[in-house]
Write a structure and sequence with these properties.
Layout: H1 3-19, H2 24-39, H3 46-56, H4 59-76, H5 79-91, H6 97-113, H7 116-133, H8 138-149, H9 159-168, H10 172-212, H11 226-231
Helix pairs in contact: 1-2, 4-7, 4-9, 5-6, 5-7, 6-7, 6-8, 6-10, 7-8, 8-10
């Protein structure tokens, strides 16, 4: 078979394996091993086991599945909701404090899990329904979670940074340090935007209430006693 034919066959086999429902990593690996066994000398398969061993022995890469495991565990537990509830209790006096609490919760969760999807899932499952219940628009609620989720690949520890450091042979510690400044800047900007957007939605709801008498949940204010605030900290 020609080189073109081999390439076309490899591409089709890879697509078939992925569309069959097999996880992408296993689909790519299985097709590659099969084609190596067919078209390359049998001794070349030794490089597969050697590379797998070398990658598994890498302390840097070993942190990735452990961070994913931690993120999945936190996402399945009430940890994300507890973190969000505590921040809301302490930030409720700030205009748009609910949105700001979502941003800070995303930032803190990102610093624990290092994954954007895990951050969106853990904080969004509690934050979006809570914001919608309090009269925030759907776009605002979903947007602030989506924006906060991007902090997962910027704030250390970041799985994306780990992969880049290994592939580019760069210092992982320096990459982590370089992500702190931009990450904190984005947290601040997202928080400022949440306050500005809340003021606009609050004024619009107030105008409707003054003209038609139709109230909105966004006009209501939550109050927390000092004891209630401190009671949220142990779970955090």
């Amino acid at each position: 078979m020609t080189v073109l034919g081999t390439g076309v066959a490899y591409g089709l086999a890879t697509l078939f394996a992925m569309f069959s429902g097999m996880p992408i990593a296993f689909a790519l690996g299985a097709v590659a091993v099969v084609f190596m066994a067919i078209y390359m000398p049998s001794a070349s398969l030794d490089t597969v086991t050697q590379n797998v061993y070398e990658e598994m022995a890498s302390i840097t890469l070993l942190s990735i599945p452990l961070f994913i495991l931690k993120g999945a565990a936190i996402g399945k537990s009430r940890a994300g909701q507890d973190l969000y509830s505590a921040l809301h209790a302490w930030l409720h006096r700030i205009p748009g404090g609910l949105g700001v609490a979502n941003v800070f919760a995303c930032a803190l969760f990102a610093a624990m899990a290092g994954s954007s999807p895990a951050t969106c899932s853990a904080i969004g499952s509690a934050g979006i329904p809570e914001m919608r219940k309090r009269g925030y628009s759907g776009g605002f609620a979903a947007g602030i979670i989506a924006a906060g989720g991007t902090l997962g690949i910027l704030l250390p520890p970041s799985i994306t940074m780990i992969l880049f450091a290994v592939a580019a042979e760069k210092s992982l510690g320096r990459l982590f340090l370089a992500g702190i400044g931009p990450g904190l800047l984005l947290v601040s900007l997202f928080g400022i935007y949440a306050v500005i957007r809340f003021r606009r939605e609050y004024e619009a709801a107030r105008a409707i209430y003054d003209t038609t008498g139709q109230g909105s949940a966004i006009l209501m204010h939550d109050e927390f006693t000092l004891a209630q605030k401190f009671s949220t900290l142990p779970r955090v």
